[in-house]
Amino acid sequence: MPAITESHVIDSVADALQFISCYHPRDFIRAMAAAWAREQSPAARNAMAQILVNSRMAALGHRPICQDTGVANISVRIGVGARIDWHRPLQEIVDDAVRRAYRSDTNPLRASVVADPFGRRHNTGDNAPAMLHVEMVAGDRIDIDVSAKGGGSENKTKFAVLNPSASVSDWVVGTVEAMGAGWCPPGILGIGIGGSVDKAMVMAKQALNEPIDATALRDRGPATREEELRLEIMDRINALGIGAQGLGGITTVLDVKVRSFPTHAASLPVALVPNCAATRHVHFVLDGSGPATLEPPDLSDWPELDFRDAWKDARHVDLDHLTREEIASWQPGDSLLLSGRLLTGRDAAHRRIEQLLAEGRPLPVSFRDRAIYYVGPVDPVGDEVVGPAGPTTSTRMDRYSDMMIEGLGVSVMIGKAERGPETIATIARNGAAYLIAVGGAAYLVSQAIRAARVLAFEDLGMEAIHEFVVRDMPVTVAVDARGGSVHVRGPRQWRMPA
Questions:
Q1: What residue stretches are annotated with the Fe-S hydro-lyase tartrate dehydratase alpha-type catalytic domain (predicted)?
Q2: The pTM is what?
Q3: Nearest to 470 by CA among 298, 353, 366, 344
Q4: Model pLDDT for residues 461-492, shown as the tens digit of each residue
Q5: If residue 286 lies in a helix (H) or strand (E), which one and from where to where?
Q6: Strands 84-85 and 4-5: what pairing?
């Protein structure tokens, strides 16, 4: 048997990271299409349509599905009989693959990894290092799972050590209900039960790489306690009415994956890891014959649909002449098509603004009566003015709401997921509004951006303040000028009786 070399690993992992940036797994496309077909909530159905259209566009254009091209998660299972011909630590080898993939000239991916996590948090610039997990297993080959995990879903990871007599289902359902929409449903839940803290977390994350088979499982019936638990949790979560993007609907999870392991008699560790609507992973095997070959989905896997039908009655909004009176006329759930100039800014930019104000220094940009979009775009290629540019989770910006809305006069914010009660109160007090774009539709959103330039904080890279010129950018009113929230009304409407 020929040896498995460094180049086999580097070429395969780098190709896999590029591959998953553009292609949803085939089973995910089919599961999302089936969920879209049976969805009864117009808002959730529209959101799913955008996700599916974006997915097909990304595949055809070979550009990232989501602007958050994720941290590289690499799970390697090395057969004890495998012939290995490398002389460096596997971490170094895999990191070389990550650098190659994320620095690609033809499809650059957004570097999101920061060093010194509790200090300066400067960006490594190449998305290395990878999050690597290695196991020794039976056999004579190497199995590798490559996934890209975005911050929105990763940040919603939960862990608890329950009493051994507690209900895992109750804990998971209660936890998901409290998580909000920041993890970009509909997606997948990975659950690890037993083992230890670290074992449960690894099981939960690795379970996300398993094929989506909830429908087949339901058809044949569960054969194990894990399978019974999968269906129970899935049904209970979907009955919550959270729906796509938290807008209210009948599908919040497409599948629930459960792995278990023996544990201490006094403990019941449970880890919960969600995967968003930009679920991205691929599995391959190395046997010494060369790098892996990856097979993309077929165009027939996507349904034929046009999300624009749902926007034919949307209100057109001119951002350059927007008044507080017009903002006051918006209602939660209204569909808007934005045109004109808007600013961008997210975590690092908001921190920089806060620092400048604390030091009494002037700001480089006026925010008075402007719209700000929470986004960290991918670098453009070819004739693009900007790469994929979907929204980031808005709740991270809640701590800056008083500063931005009351202090600096921002009138409209655009992001994804819900806002906290204090931010909603600030919005209502100032007659502002909060709008959402669909998380997981970054390439689709970028098509509405006709011009882009950096206005301030260029050293922050993708977190710099840009000015975008947009035409017919699709958004939904999430919080209106009176504090009404679609993330409260939607799930309440679609929740099933207990």
A1: 11-284
A2: 0.94
A3: 344
A4: 889 999 999 999 999 999 999 999 999 999 99
A5: strand 281-286
A6: parallel
